[in-house]
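quick one before i forget lol
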Amino acid sequence: MSGGNQLRVHSGIYLSSWKLNRRTDATEAFGSLVKHGLVANKLSVRLLLKPGTTQFLDELRSIASGDQQAQLADHRKRAFNALSD
């Protein structure tokens, strides 16, 4: 595995871009992160559910503002589109 093409590098770029409020960079990094995981057949997903149910935690809706929710939706859309490239 070459130096920069590692899951932890892709994760770090995404997280630092998000924290620095660089949403376009974060969106692209998220797409790279998902693509890397799929190519390596090692894509991990964390689903936060209410205990004993199949419903998502309510806090997820309140954590992100309306703008952030739209940006997260855009991340998902771009990551999906990157897979078909």
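fyi The mean pLDDT is 78.
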